[in-house]
Amino acid sequence: MAHKESCNTISENNSFNSPCRSQVAEGIGNCSIENQINPNNPPIPIWNHEQNQLDFINFSISPERLAEVVEGNNIQCLQQYGGINGIATALETNLLMGIGGDGEDLYRRHKAFGSNLNLEEKSSVLAKGLYRFVLDSLKDTTIILLLCCATLSIVIGIKRNGLEEGLLDGAIIFLAILIFVNMGAIFRFCKARRIKKLSRGKNVVGVMRGGKMGHIPVSEIVVGDVVCLLTGDRVPADGLFIHGDSFKLDDDPVHEDHNYYSKYPSIFTGAKVAEGDCRMLVTSIGGNTEKGKLMRSISCHQREESKLQAAIDKTNSRLEKIWLSLLLLALVVQVLRCFVWKSDQCDENHDPDPKGMKNAVEEIMKEAAKLVKRQAVRINGLVAVLCILISALRDGLPLGIFISFAYASKKMTVYHAMVQKLPACATIGLVTTICTGVTGDLGLQHMKIAQLWIGFHNLKEASDMVADHEVLNALREGVCMNKSRPRRGYSAFVGSESSWAGYRGIGTKLHHYYNIDGTKQTLDEDKRAMFKKLIEGIESDCLQCFAFAYKKLVIQEKEKPDLKLEEEENLKPIESGLTLLGLVGLKNPYPPEVRQAIEACRESGVKIKLVVGDNINMARFMATNSHILRPEEDVKGAVIEASEFRNTSEEDRMKMIDKIRVMANTSPTDKLSMVQCLRRKGEVVAVTGTCSRDSSSLKEADVGLCMGDNSAEAAKECSDIVILDLNFVTIYEILKLGRCVCKQS
């Protein structure tokens, strides 16, 4: 049987380090062997506040520990719990058959882990009846004023035209108000019912229970369920990836690693399946999900109104009071005219003081009545003009603001920005701080080689040539394989330009390395430590480090090869026996437009903070080269790890927030905490985001900026403006336009 040699080349980022892609949430450090799941552990006691006693639920893992595992999102911590099989055992779930799904089983799971309802859904469960909508309508100031007018109209009508005709006119006015109130209430009631009905029909997901596939409402999902997700489905809960076919979420549109979810198995609520299908094990539902906790944090910290909205509401409130006061004054004048003038007409000989004792107040009222009688026509015209003027003042301001915002939103489309909430057109002009992540022009996508190491030798010049052509050929082949899909019989990890180096942790898989002269050397522990220091030195120079390694494989040729099976085998990661070809340090000079936009923001008084999930060296590199961080600003406290911010008290956070320019290794909780601190300091904050885990920060900020048309649907729904071209320069352009809107308004 013939044999042939095949080269398997792998590119690695920080190959001798294995940091997590996603940041570990607070408390994840408790993942230790001592806490490893044992199915024979005694049940965990849960305190029942209602009955003031301990309830023992027969599950050997708590909701808090499950949430820590998922939010940590790294295979190493999961392995300490026995992998996904260990988690499934603890939850009494069969990964193929699902849970039993009988009434007792569902009751136990609801009791132990709660229900799959978030805060918004819980409030909607208490559905309003029609009478509640009617009562809400009656609280409107305009309706109250109309009722006052109707009452006074009855009084005036009875006085002028008699009881029967006066009551008839008043009843017609009351009937008109009643129809107006009820029609609006009925419309809102029907709309709420229709939305609820549609959401019930739409929010259905496939689950495996008792070995049978079925569809249930999302609200009925329990912890331990095996959920089957198809293209277009929304992820209904937090969970762990079991297996899938070409599975990809809109949450992370960058990676193209076929084994991505084998390394980062967590799937989070709110993401949408962009491609393929998968099965996931539900581990957290409702308020225990990451999204539920963040949304609860927003509701606990009472969200303040934006400054723009507060200013508009204040102006409207003043106009409302003026409108109400003037209309009531006009009604009082009409009542005085009616009663004083009418009584004088009915009894010309009426003498209020038969004894001849004149009262000063009565004299004044009589003179006023005469004046009103003479100016009756003028006063009628004045009242009409006054009503028109007041109505124009009351409704004209919102109309004028709406027209201004609508014009600005249309103007912003020129800069590839789509406005979803009109007030954001002006609020963006009031922004004082921008918390940005990695936008399209801040990302590390177009890189240039700054350093190339073969063994422990740095090739600084062209004359420093590698002696062995095999090393050069393998390097060339590795670079080419990371830009195109390999031919049959060859294996490589294939990804996009920004993700091709995202395969971590091959340090333990390396057994040999090449020297500059092309000789192969054994990689012992001392040499491994030397390479680790070398990588740290490359990163300290603000360069991104990549490792190229390869392994020769012997592939047996078959008479009838299965191409699909062969491709799957080729794409499996190599576990050992790799030979290090070289280390590459890449730099990324940002385009001048980005630096100019950032400098322009600074000059206009807008502070920019870089909040990223990358390590601190890479975050400092991005901030320094893009001019977010100036050399004189790189002081203690300007560039920090998110853990420093997370583990300090609320008071200390408020003190350090102004100094922070860059925060690295951030989780969604850290990003939300920063936004909340800035808003409490009186800053008007804009936040960028792309994935569903950014939803809480986008919602909390004064202006949420969703970056990219291909961003997660959940992020778009929570944002105010969608930046279609992903560029920071666009943010500066719409900020300038927003300031023009504020000046005109």
TrEMBL record:
Instruction: Give the Cation-transporting P-type ATPase N-terminal domain ranges.
Output: 81-153
User: Subcellular location, in the record's words?
Assistant: Membrane
The source's domain of life comes to: Eukaryota
Q: InterPro entries given for it?
A: ATPase_P-typ_cation-transptr_N, ATPase_P-typ_cyto_dom_N, ATPase_P-typ_TM_dom_sf, ATPase_P-typ_transduc_dom_A_sf, ATPase_P-type_domA, HAD-like_sf, HAD_sf
For the P-type ATPase A domain, which residue ranges apply? 203-298
List the residue ranges forming a coiled coil, or say none.
none
Q: Which UniProt keywords apply?
A: Magnesium, Membrane, Transmembrane, Transmembrane helix
TM annotation in the entry: 141-158, 170-190, 322-342, 382-408
Any single GO molecular-function term of the entry would be:
P-type calcium transporter activity
Question: PANTHER family this protein is in?
Answer: CALCIUM-TRANSPORTING ATPASE 12, PLASMA MEMBRANE-TYPE-LIKE, CATION TRANSPORTING ATPASE
| Name listed for the protein in its UniProt record | Cation-transporting P-type ATPase N-terminal domain-containing protein
Gene3D superfamilies named in the record: Calcium-transporting ATPase, cytoplasmic domain N, Calcium-transporting ATPase, cytoplasmic transduction domain A, Calcium-transporting ATPase, transmembrane domain, HAD superfamily/HAD-like
Q: What cellular component terms from Gene Ontology apply here?
A: plasma membrane
Could you confirm whether the keyword Magnesium appears in this record? Answer: yes
